[in-house]
Write a structure and sequence with these properties.
Helix content is 71%, strand content 0%. By secondary structure, it is mostly helical. Zinc ion binds at residues 34-35, 94, 98, 184, 188. This is Inner membrane protein.
């Protein structure tokens, strides 16, 4: 699947689970991250590694020579970004980035990062998260799509009393990345090449497994709707 298909699938599968518009950017960030392992790799991943690697290096130098300037929060954030770029740098196409293991690691890191940045503005934090994982070529096209969906969601949520589900604290940011990521693995499983998502198990997911994943998603959706209905009525 190409970035367009993954963006649409990520939005379609994620929208029922969000409670505020900035989560739209995170759904798409999660849906696009796994493909950092190929065509856009050199362009964005190398730049990201130089940038975040330099920040980590500066932090280490500060720690060694100017400890009073060292900031542990800044160190953790720059190391987290560096890890986000190192994973696709060393990955083969449809390798480690297309696994559930990586889904948990990346959702946690990117979600935590956005959570930290959200003190300034949740929307800008969401846009930054998406920028981290998209190449310039894709970013220019995907941002207008996200902003359009952002506006639609904003209007819908200003009219309804309750979202279906509202994840608290850092999960508000981790879960949407995870759902977007899940949709990418599902989408690639439906293609003839399949997806080796159960690493370290050597078992490839194909169409049949993709349909099972879709069943898991429908089950979760029904669970959320059931909880919502029993809470409200
Ligand atoms: Zn892929």
């Amino acid at each position: 699947m190409m970035w367009k298909g993954h963006t649409i699938l990520g939005l379609a599968m994620g929208l029922p689970f969000i409670s505020s518009p900035e989560q739209v950017f995170l759904l798409v960030a999660g849906a696009l991250y796994p493909d950092l392992d190929h065509d856009v790799k050199t362009e964005i991943v190398n730049r990201g590694i130089y940038l975040s690697g330099s920040l980590v290096l500066i932090n280490i130098l500060l720690y060694l020579f100017k400890p009073s300037y060292f900031n542990i929060g800044f160190f953790i954030v720059s190391t987290a970004v560096l890890i986000l770029y190192l994973i696709p740098y060393f990955a083969n196409h449809r390798g480690i980035t297309h696994t559930f293991l990586c889904m948990f690691v990346v959702s946690t890191i990117l979600g935590f990062l956005t959570y930290k940045l959200s003190v300034f503005s949740p929307t800008i934090a969401g846009i930054i998260a998406l920028s981290i994982v998209s190449s310039e070529k894709i970013l220019g096209k995907v941002i207008p799509i996200c902003i359009f969906v952002w506006i639609v969601i904003y209007l819908i949520f200003s009219g309804v009393e309750y979202p279906l589900i509202d994840f608290p604290g850092v999960y508000h940011y981790i879960v949407p990345v995870g759902i977007g990521y899940f949709s990418h693995i599902l989408g690639d499983s439906l293609t003839p090449a399949g997806c080796n998502a159960l690493y370290p198990l050597n078992y490839k997911l194909y169409r049949r497994e993709g349909i099972i994943l879709m069943g898991v998603w429908i089950f979760l959706l029904l669970l959320v709707i059931y909880n919502f209905v029993s809470r409200v009525y």
